[in-house]
Amino acid sequence: MSSTKNSLAMQRIAKLLDENSFVELGSLVTARSTDFNLTADKTPSDGVIVGHGLIDENLVFVYSQDASVLGGTIGEMHAKKIASVYDMAMKMGAPVIGLLDCAGVRLQESVDALEGMGQIYAKQTAASGVVPQISAVFGSCGGGLAVASALCDFTYMETEKGRLFVNSPDAIADNNVSKCDTAKADFQAANTGVVDAAGTEDEILAEIRELVTILPGCNEESGRVDECTDDLNRACESMESMKGDPRYFLSEIADDHNFVETKKGYAKDMVTGFIKLNGITVGAVANATVMHDENGNRTEEFEAALTAQGCEKAADFIQYCDAFDIPVLSMTNTTGFKATSCSEKRLPKALARMTYAFANATTAKINFITGDAFGSSYVMMNSKSLGADLVYAWPDAKVGMMDAKSAAKIMYADASADVLDEKAKEYEALQSNVENAARRGYIDLIINPADTRKYLIAGFEMLFTKKVEGPMKKHGAK
């Protein structure tokens, strides 16, 4: 065991993994460079502890940077140790977890250190879609290492000491730390789409443990299935009141009411995360119009409109699920697109990315229409025409070109108020009624809200052996 066994880096590993399960590898590795009298400094483990262990008996590979050794900077051997973790993880089909606390690339090693940084990027890219990659920022994570955290599938940040940045706040024109600390967890979680959650060290490590137990170890496991102890036919009460906030909806239908949300603070109008249905891990993508706190009080409201950030968030999540054969459940409640000049700059590309992700995914896909599903925004949210295997809806859902009143005003622009009301009712009965979409085959089943859980379980069980072979191509262009 290295002399860093009492360091924060080792303590974090001990708290993350099952007791006495960690096996350290490469503990005697030290820096090779002798420039600038580097040999005079002791570099135990060259500032990073690597090895393997268990999380709830699931094999994982871990590297934890030690800021007490040259600031945890990345040098040649430091990088090689991290690269070796990736090599082992890919051979064994197990997740990689990086605990980051680093002052940057080691200046004394110059191009050797830069070469090492490139090796880390290359290993992360090779592992993408093969094994889950998780990182947690406990100290500084700046410059090139910020890219390494973004290359991971999931990233967490410690609220007080965690700092994640490409450029330090004071290096940004017209900005300083006191004005806007762009490196802090709250800024990163809300604005970049990199951070999944922020909290204390113990909270982060607990969330990583929970995440590992819901994800497959690699892309060859055909998703993840565990034993279910919850009632498969459990009625879901008061579902209608939850449809605006899918966090409550998903918690209600999930095994043991457990919903693991991702990117919690980013694009809150689009909810992503994982649930289990009869032990099968399912990825959920849902439109949100309201957000509640833990006491059930409304804290935020949103338009029933697709936004650029929300679509980008959804696209990344769908692609992740598809890479690991995790079934996707979409929940549709949208009437159009965010109408601002800022959104318009990014919306076309973001909408295309999400549409492509849904249509391109070959994993099992179920779309559930919980509210309004109007226009092109409905089509983009995993509709039957995009390739959804099954589409379910509640009886009070509406599916069509637009809401009935707006349609009546367009078709009968010069009509009186009484005529508009009459035509709106006629339009809703003929065009927006959910039964009309079902008669045309665009909806497979209209179900009562209380029966939502059992029908979703049955649907995903039926789709468990789904196989799709598409055209031969290297990869898509989106």
UniProtKB/TrEMBL annotation:
A family per Pfam: Carboxyl_trans
Key words, A-Z: Transferase
Domain CoA carboxyltransferase C-terminal: 234-474
Domain CoA carboxyltransferase N-terminal residues, every copy: 1-174
Keyword Transferase applies: yes
Database matches in InterPro entries: AccD/PCCB, AcCoA_carboxyl_beta, ClpP/crotonase-like_dom_sf, COA_CT_C, COA_CT_N
Domain of life: Bacteria
Molecular functions per Gene Ontology: transferase activity
The protein, known as: Carboxyl transferase domain-containing protein
